[in-house]
Structure prediction request, 203 residues.
Amino acid sequence: MDWLMENWKLLSSPVICAFIGWLTNYLAVKMLFRPRRPVNLLGLKVQGVFPRRQKALAENLGRMIEKNLINHDDLRRALNTPEFQQVFRDAVIAKIGGFLDKLVGENPMLAIFINEQVRTKVGELLLAEVAGIIPEILATAADKLREYLNFSELVRDKVEKFDSERIEELLLDVMRKEFGFIEFVGGALGFVIGLVQAAIFYF
Prediction:
């Protein structure tokens, strides 16, 4: 007991260093997001890393996504897949069939000329025609999308408009465990440093 009383400072050193290490990393993680608006502190303007760099982050993220994740070439390849073209072809044929049904329904006299046999023949002709022009239509659509849709600008504009609180929520949802691990490592390293320090002073 007397030994504990005499050496309480040495024993408390690892605990204090662990707390300081954890607190330092905890504050470092928080300062990624806080303060959300600039604050003057002793003549220095202090703001969280993400709120301060939101525009640069948005621009870099937009370029990175368009370069490495999704771009117009990916979109063109998706439009050119046989599966998508088949779905598009079926949708066009269904719309044409619906139009013919509506036309005959609204004009009973046409039913005399557009019977089931005629409609089947018209459908086969349209199917053959549509099958030939579908790739051309989709290629034109892909070119127009390249002209009117800029992935980089789209991502940049959306990220720039994010509220700082929303950015914090998104990143914490994705990286909560990683941030927690950073705080834990700070505490663990502080504890080890405290042990080493206590050992040096003791011996």
